[in-house]
Amino acid sequence: MKTKILNIITFLLMSCISTYLYAQNNTQVGLPEGAIARLGKGGINIMRFSPDGRYLAVGTDVAVWLYDVPDGKETALFTGQGGQVNALAFSNNGKMLASSGEGNPVIQLWNLDTRNKLNSIGLTQRRDSIASLAFHGSTLISLERRGKVIYWDASTGKELSESGNIVQFKAAAFSDNGSLFAIGANDSKIHLWDATSGSRKRTIIGHASLFRKQDKDILALAFSPDGEILASGSEDKTVQLWNTQTYTKIGTLRKHDEWITAIAFSDDIRTLATGDTSGEIKLWDIATRKVRTTLKGHKNTINALTFAPDGMSEYSGCLASGSADGTIRLWNPYTGKELITLTTGHAEWVKTIAFSENDTFLASAVYNGVIEKWNLTTFEKIDSFTAGQSDIFGIITLSSDAKFFAGNRGDAMVVFNSLGYGTHIRGGGNRDLQVWDMSTGKEFPVPAMQRGPRTAAPIFSPDNNLLAASVFRTIRVWHRESGTELFQLNSHIPLFRGQMQFSPDGQKFAALPSHNKLQVWDVTTQNNITPSNMKPAEVFAFSPDNSTIATASPVDMHLWHLNAAPEDVHTPIDAKLLGLDKSLVFSPDGKTLVGTSRRNLMLIDVETGNQLTLPTGHTEPIEAIVFSHNGKTLATASVDGTILLWDWDKISGK
Known about the structure:
Blueprint (H helix, E strand, L loop, with lengths): L1 H14 L1 H5 L13 E5 L4 E6 L5 E6 L3 E5 L4 E5 L9 E4 L5 E5 L5 E6 L4 E7 L7 E7 L2 E6 L4 E5 L5 E5 L5 E6 L5 E6 L4 E5 L4 E6 L13 E6 L5 E6 L4 E5 L4 E6 L6 E6 L5 E6 L4 E5 L4 E6 L6 E6 L11 E5 L4 E4 L6 E6 L6 E6 L5 E6 L4 E5 L5 E5 L6 E7 L5 E13 L6 E15 L5 E2 L14 E2 L5 E6 L2 E6 L5 E6 L8 E4 L5 E5 L3 E2 L1 E4 L13 E2 L1 E4 L5 E5 L4 E5 L8 E4 L10 E3 L5 E6 L2 E6 L5 E5 L6 E6 L5 E6 L4 E5 H5 L2
Antiparallel strand pairs: 1-57, 2-3, 3-4, 4-5, 6-7, 7-8, 8-9, 10-11, 11-12, 12-13, 14-15, 15-16, 16-17, 18-19, 19-20, 20-21, 22-23, 23-24, 24-25, 26-27, 27-28, 28-29, 30-31, 31-32, 32-33, 34-35, 35-36, 36-37, 38-39, 39-40, 40-41, 42-43, 43-45, 44-46, 47-48, 48-49, 49-50, 51-52, 52-53, 53-54, ...
């Protein structure tokens, strides 16, 4: 009967696909002051269906996204606290949703009927990272990353008690009724706890081994709905089943070829869904321990899986899967057929961005080489370029007019930390250096060179005719269209993997090895024109008029005037910097330097050194900053999977 119901609704789902994919525009919800729009919804950490199956709540690196499954309506719930959402729990009656997470100093309680905040439970400074949440009757239980279990009165937000001294862990799960929780510890053992009392019940061996020194970390845990079975997924590519009453292993599932990253039980406890870093999902018959079917459609790591409750809606029993490829898909678990792509835009880790020449669209490149184009009037995604897609790209470069893409791709297993920041990557192989025209899909030739992890991706000259890439200590420059190498530059630094830039007029080229001194060349003559008194730096930028380079470290900043007399080459900037790190650019008028300090922007007046630190609302480090060609908009791209567009006049105080 369940199969028939899901087959019937497949047609209905497909008929309203446009409703899902073009749901409510939430690009201007929850913006920090001075921001114009947010592009992207943040990488997926967790997904949960409401008890009646009507809502799918998705916790991402920036917010809670609530999908009304029957009509496709999308609501963005921002806490306003600038933290991730790694923990979600519905109340037993389905009227309340609790959310919290990494760097998020509140537990937020939401009214699902009104989509408004019911209550905010403020956490003390030492409690700023919630790994998991569960309701046990009228009590809300929170599990902290720092080792405490806290009990709250859900109606008042009052703390009732706390207990526990939890060991460090990489995965966590509560049972459906909130009475048990399990953690996958850093030693690859599994610790089972009584959530109601905060006492440890048992430690089981988990995926630990005396003989295997790697590929053993537990990445996913899930309880069966009745709490009697615990499933654990690991880097060892197996899923193990445990009896929570006897603490014994009752099965090992071995069919995945990559790390297991997500697990979910069906409501009737007949099916287990498991997802891995390749994007494959396997559906297992729990009784026979055999694979019923394999679901293929996602392009990258499965971040989260969850089943809709049985018999509560027209989506009874369907499986929802969320991937690092940015999509959430619904599946019929009995036939293995994909019902619909519920939504897109949840991609991970934006690595670089570029405005089109006329500023009509913005191109963004994510970690796997997928390029997305965003309309800057409607803020909708208008196109994607996927020809260069891979598991992982070390470095990705876009031309300054968003026409061309270059990068070095590799094969790897990539896991995004669902409980906090960062990634876990194994592999990479021999990285393939490639250059593409994104409008035509043409791939350009690359000179024969020794490739590998020490090869930095190319950068484009301002006119897009030249590319430069580093191979060990040599920087090689070639013609984009023909692939003919034109000249080489010696960086004098073994294993150079630093930053490289052409000046805006394309006449100068600079390279900055990590924690070292900048080197500058004249492109026409290939002469080294580096000032003799150059100081070590972390980041640098060419001025708009090509005459000056700014360099900065976490503690100092300098201007280097390339056409000046020797005594006038160097000007220090009297700025009290703190933590300037990833990127640095001049404002279009050359009067302000804009840099990044992890999640924040720093604006430094070039003449006075006065600086302003601007919180951005990004929840993970900023990877790239770029100005539009008309100078009116500043864009920031983050590891959190989003891009923020800023009104430059407003944030600069002009």
